[in-house]
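Supplementary Methods, section 5.1.

A reviewer requested that the exact input to the structure prediction be made available. We therefore reproduce it here, unchanged from the version used in the analyses.
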Amino acid sequence: MTLFGKGKGWIKAPISGTLLLACFAGTLYGAVTGNVDRMLLWGILAEVVGLRRDRYLETFNGEAD
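The structure derived from this sequence is encoded token-by-token as follows.
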């Protein structure tokens, strides 16, 4: 998990790179369309997919807990 962990995703930070990208894309989309609900939905969806991807890669590479 990269949300509150050490960060094993694209960005080595306490928050995942997927969340940062989702926030940026969601903010841009929300600013253009004014649709906050979709902005939040896509941000959450992207983060869930990113966390599952990280967990799958950790398991596949034998680095899972």
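The chain is about 65% helix and 0% strand. These observations are discussed further in the main text.
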